[in-house]
User: Which sequence fits this backbone?
């Protein structure tokens, strides 16, 4: 039986070697470190097929946890192979389109991130403030059942396109609810989840026109908004009887114990006022 004292870096390097040996010769397997949300870094395997310019990155954190839990390396390698077969891109993406704003403007969307933990990123990308959060923009290259391929809109894109930030923001306001429609459904009791139909970067659905007004009408009262992750929020009617201080503690505990650091949206709850028709910090 394999020892379970292997470091994460050792594990990733072994996975790279083993996956590479199991793939076809035309598929290269390389290590890639990505700066993710909240200034976190994640290491993944990039599987690059010859002649295709889009390559999936399969991050290794979950695989390492499964390894520490007793799953053997060969079984994990097989999982990586299975994922690759499902998500691999069959055709190259025409990246020259990204150089033209008219060719990408209908694919620009927005997402919400935390301001304080993303200061370095926010210096490099167009963004708008929303309470203590920031609205940032991305190009939705691919939207499939197995995940999205996205490209963050950066300041250099605006210079290349020769457009103002407001044009990007306006495109995102138009596209996001259309490309990633609102999804709201009951959780337990009177709690509801608000996200998009892909459940990816769906916390931004609180920005959709009339989304929170609709939730207010359905719930029949003011409500708290728990930022459960960058992918979704939870709505709790005010009459549910949980104090805001308790909800803040719940959010912090979930962030610390149940979420990847890159998925954390905020450290406290928000409040929707039907009278004011807006979300409050």
Assistant:
């Amino acid at each position: 039986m394999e020892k379970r004292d292997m470091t994460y870096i050792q594990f990733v390097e072994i996975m790279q070697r083993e996956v590479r040996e199991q793939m076809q010769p035309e598929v290269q397997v390389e290590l890639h470190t990505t700066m993710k949300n909240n200034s976190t870094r994640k290491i993944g395997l990039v599987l690059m097929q010859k002649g295709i310019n889009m390559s999936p990155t399969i991050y290794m954190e979950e695989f390492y946890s499964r390894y520490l839990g007793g799953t053997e390396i060969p079984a994990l390698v097989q999982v990586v192979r299975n994922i690759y077969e499902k998500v691999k891109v069959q055709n190259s993406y025409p990246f020259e389109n990204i150089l033209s704003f008219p060719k990408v403007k209908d694919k620009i969307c927005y997402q919400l991130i935390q301001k304080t933990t993303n200061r370095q990123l926010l210096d490099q990308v167009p963004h708008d403030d929303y309470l203590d959060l920031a609205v940032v923009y991305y190009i939705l290259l691919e939207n499939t059942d197995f995940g999205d391929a996205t490209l963050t809109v950066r300041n250099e894109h605006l210079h290349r396109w020769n457009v103002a930030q407001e044009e990007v923001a306006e495109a995102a306001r138009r596209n996001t609810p259309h490309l990633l429609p609102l999804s709201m459904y009951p959780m337990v009791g009177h709690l509801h989840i608000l996200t998009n139909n892909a459940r990816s970067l769906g916390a931004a659905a609180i920005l959709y026109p009339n989304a929170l007004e609709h939730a207010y009408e359905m719930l029949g009262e003011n409500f708290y908004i728990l930022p459960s992750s960058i992918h979704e929020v939870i709505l709790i009617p005010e009459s549910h009887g949980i104090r805001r201080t308790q909800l803040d503690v719940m959010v912090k505990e979930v962030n610390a114990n149940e979420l990847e650091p890159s998925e954390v949206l905020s450290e406290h709850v928000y409040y929707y006022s039907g009278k004011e028709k807006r979300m409050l910090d």
